[in-house]
Amino acid sequence: MTTNDKSRRSRIVEVAVKLAQGRDFGEVGLREVAEQAGVALGTLYKSFSSKEEIIAAAVQYQTTRLRRQFDRTPARGATPLERVDDLFARLTRALTRRPAFARTVLGAISTNHPDISGAVLEHDGETTRMVVAALRGGPPDDVDVESYTADERTVAFLLRHIWFASMVGWSASLYTPAGVLEHVHDAARLLLAGAESLRA
Q: What confidence tens digit (pLDDT) does each residue in 108-124 have?
């Protein structure tokens, strides 16, 4: 894929997410996306065969961007709990500063559409790696998936799901970002207190 192709794909994804502001993504037409992105409809179809593929690309874009951020600046803190708090504070801030994009990503992760499932699996894997890295006190790039302990897998799984459920609550205006972080902190505190191997 050329640099121009990548740039065009990124522009299409950004336009599609922007057009979803204030309305359901399902109401956004591909012709409208193409017009706003400044490309022909046929050109759009060369990059994406469906609206779901655009959403999948949005999820992959967000996942890759966050992974790179944590590789450059790992979760901060002297203890696993402090680092987990920092991790989820930064993840939450990255999403909630762009509500329309966040709701698109959260909705995509909740669906079982075949064009999106691969991006969702990648998101789950990378988020798990970020949590394990925070528990250990290093960048995600240093974490070998095969090295996860049973406690690390369990804690990462539960924290990811509590955070995701709380973010869905935020998208429905049930919780504030601070409320999301409070839920994750309370869960992490209890889980880490019960996991002897993670009490460093």
A: 778 777 888 888 888 89
